[in-house]
Design goal:
The protein is α/β, with parallel strands linked by helices. Helix content is 41%, strand content 20%. It has 2 domains: 2-117 and 295-327, 2-Layer Sandwich (Nucleotidyltransferase, domain 5), CATH 3.30.420; 127-292, Nucleotidyltransferase, domain 5, CATH 3.30.420. The protein has 10 helices and 11 strands. The longest helix is centred in the last third of the chain and has 27 residues, at 230-256. The N and C termini lie far apart (41 Å). The structure holds 5'-O-[(R)-(carboxyoxy)(hydroxy)phosphoryl]adenosine and zinc ion.
């Protein structure tokens, strides 16, 4: 099955064509980073306008790179939410128009479920259930037990900031450019992670919290006269943030006897996270997406649709911010 996916929930316009949920024929991504950097963060209205400028070019480029005509596409998939509503609307309206114009079925995909399918795209044949999923992105921090395709139990979520948001805010405190996560990661490589003893929050819960950690960085900065030791702060912050998500994830996996763990979302590109996960491969089978599939892309949206194919009438598709699929909770 050949699916053309569209993603426009935040500051990346993306179009991909994926065959049978596993083979990426093209993965077009146009980042808006340069546009938003001068403002220190994503400006929603600018994001929508830029999606509008880019999306048709990306669709043409995707068909050209895959060397396909629209007739060869079996269906369309588009991110329905969560995200910036104006930005989402550009992708949705485009997908609806194409579905009508090309006479193809269309499915709306939840962005978070899309991130989960980045690992199915890369490692589909190796993944078995139950699967523990740690989703770490700019907007969410979720620990999810996945029982089968489409069946999830929410184990933990953040009580305040998302982990990527904490990386971005700490970068801002340190005067590092947007987006802060990759910049903190880069600085941390030459820093001492034991230089500052930042807190690991909620040690007894499977929920996450990052606002205390962010405030601890702020207070540490206030106490410093002169130029701050940026690399040491980045390394110590990163160590605390990554420790706290991994400790909870693997504590839960051990408690439930879950062998397979999937880490996904933008922060799964973090180099400390990835090296810590390599070390855990002896005890668990850990899946993390290749770097190009960690942050927002449309290949994961197309792959999710292939596994969960339930097309709807294109006219009925609207922005849908909540994820109705995560039901109940097994842990406190
Ligand atoms: O998944 P994503 O592209 O967008 C959302 O759905 O939110 O994630 C973006 C987030 C940003 O907060 C960004 O700073 C963070 O992922 N990020 C990183 C790294 N690369 C991206 N955080 C830490 N280390 C990285 N290497
Ligand atoms: Zn995302």
């Amino acid at each position: 099955m050949m699916i053309l996916g569209i993603e426009s929930s935040c500051d990346e316009t993306a179009v991909a064509i994926v065959r049978d949920g596993q083979q990426i024929l093209t993965n077009q991504i146009r980042s808006q980073i340069d546009l938003h950097r001068v403002h220190g963060g994503v400006v929603p209205e600018l994001a929508s306008r830029e999606h509008l400028n880019s999306i048709h070019h990306l669709i043409e480029a995707a068909l050209a790179e895959a060397d396909l005509s629209p007739e060869a596409i079996d269906g369309l998939a588009v991110t329905q939410g969560p995200g910036l509503s104006g930005a989402l609307l550009v992708g949705l309206a485009t997908a609806q128009s194409l579905a009508w114009l090309w006479n193809k079925p269309l499915m709306g995909i939840n962005h978070l479920e899309g991130h989960i399918y980045a690992n199915f795209l890369a490692f589909g044949d190796q993944i078995r259930f139950p699967l523990l999923v740690l989703l770490v992105s700019g907007g969410h921090t979720l620990l999810i037990e996945m029982h089968e395709h489409g069946s999830y139990t929410l184990v933990g979520t953040t009580r305040d900031d998302a982990i990527g948001e904490a990386f971005d805010k700490v970068a801002r405190l340190l005067g590092l450019p947007y987006p802060g996560g990759p910049e903190v990661d880069r600085q941390a490589r030459s820093g001492n992670s034991a230089a500052f003893d930042f807190p690991r929050s909620l040690p007894d819960s499977y929920d996450f919290s990052f606002s205390g950690l962010k405030t601890a960085v702020l207070y540490a900065l206030r106490k410093i006269d002169g130029p701050p030791p940026v690399a040491d702060i980045c390394a110590s912050f990163q160590q605390a943030a990554i420790d706290s998500v991994l400790d909870k994830t693997f504590r839960y996996a051990r408690a439930r006897g879950i062998q397979q763990v999937s880490i996904t979302g933008g922060v799964s590109a973090n180099s400390l996270l990835r090296s810590r996960l390599q070390a855990l491969q002896r005890e668990f089978e850990v899946f993390m997406p290749p770097l190009a599939l960690c942050t927002d892309n449309a290949a994961m949206i197309a792959a999710c649709a292939a596994y969960r194919w339930q097309p709807v009438s294109a006219l009925n598709l609207t922005v849908r911010p909540r994820w109705p699929l995560v039901t109940g909770t097994t842990a406190g």
